[in-house]
Prior knowledge:
Blueprint (H helix, E strand, L loop, with lengths): L3 E4 L2 E3 L5 E7 L6 E9 L6 E7 L2 E4 L7 E6 L4 E6 L8 E9 L4 E3 L3 E5 L2
Amino acid sequence: QVQLVVSGGGLVQPGGSLTLSCVGSGSSFRIGAWGWYRQAPGKQREVVAFGARGNANYVDSVKGRFAGSADNAKNTVFLQMNSLKPEDTAVYSCNVIDGTGHSYWGQGTQVTVSS
């Protein structure tokens, strides 16, 4: 059974950086498409980045600051977050759709941007 494990969240000062990782387990697991989502307190979950086959797209609020990528050799999806702002504070989670169309979710990780 495929599981996604998310890591890399934490507390960072405004302007700082964090890298989130989402690692898939399972011998037959292959990353088809991926997405990173976040949910801030009192707000709906939103997608911040998504991609497939080497391409990536971003919500306007993170363009130029976040970079998502996938490494099939490592069964891992990354989200590099730079120039973090307090409004980036949220619980971040990943979603991966494998080569057969199955969708998997990783657990959330808290990102807090505060001085």
